[in-house]
Amino acid sequence: MKFALSAIALLFCAAAVMGYAFVLGEISLSLSTIATMRGQVAVVERQETHVRTAELFTAETGALQGELDGFIAHDDDIVAVIETIELAAKREKVELSIASVDVETGAWKRHEPVRAVMTASGSFASLAAFATALETLPRIARVEKFGMETVGKVWFGTFEISFVKEKTASL
Amino acid sequence: MVNLLPKPIKRKLRLDYYVRLATVACGACAVVIGMGIALLVPSYLFARDEAETTARYVAAIQETGLRERAGSQSSIALLAERIKIIKEYERPPVTAQILSRLEVRLPASVTLKKIGVRYDAAGEGGILISGVAGTRNALLAYAQSLQKENIFSGVTVPVSQLNADKDIDFSLSFSFKTAP
Fold it and tell me: Is A3 exposed, middle or buried (0-12, 13-18, 19+ CB in 10 A)?
């Protein structure tokens, strides 16, 4: 009888120790979860601050970004770019013929380069002025190369320019 | 005082004593630990509840944040790419400068027939000109005067083009670089 009582006391003691360990473990786990979550809350709050700053920046520079957008060609104003080039040719008294306009593969995600090759004829001064006009197009554009050749008094030129177009939004 | 009990009885009594002592100790220990558990239970419940609430809060703000970030990241990325493109496309207009210097330095007896300009970077590139020079000296003088221009470099007349002494078909290749 006395041994049975001792065994029961021992069992109670062991059960109490295990119960204590379980409760302590659970509390520790919850505390660790809370600590991790608070860390994540801090990260998300920092990100939120950045987002607010970005939104503020976007709002404040909206007008400037709109102006910048005017220098980038879009699908519906490629013709306008070509017309600007033709207008420059007319102004500089150059006979212009557009040979090709091709969209190229660029390294950008949201924009792509468009390459236009054109031939022109006129006086040396006219072609020089036309080349300068191409360099100063009201677009984000650059002259890649050009060549001029004379036969008699008339000069013939080949011009290759590249301008930037925003990529067509994929559906 | 002398214990006169026989040795087996003494041993039995000592064993009984230790068994009872251990039983009482275990019982006391179980009671103390049980009280400890009872005291920890509110903390346990509170911690578990707090952990669940925090997890739900994090999930909610992450979902909202993701949507907001996507919008602002897209417009910032578009702007960043445009700035990068502007830097890449930024070139000073140099064509007029190049052509005027090629023409101004031209001696009367040298005629240009072809001019080719290739732009490699901002204000830099290569030029290829060809034409006819009346005399060898006129060609050399033209090359030298072009070399004197600070935007041109590497203007040299290949020896192979100096075979004839008049009406020389020449071709010069050199590079240009304008000051930033």
Answer: exposed
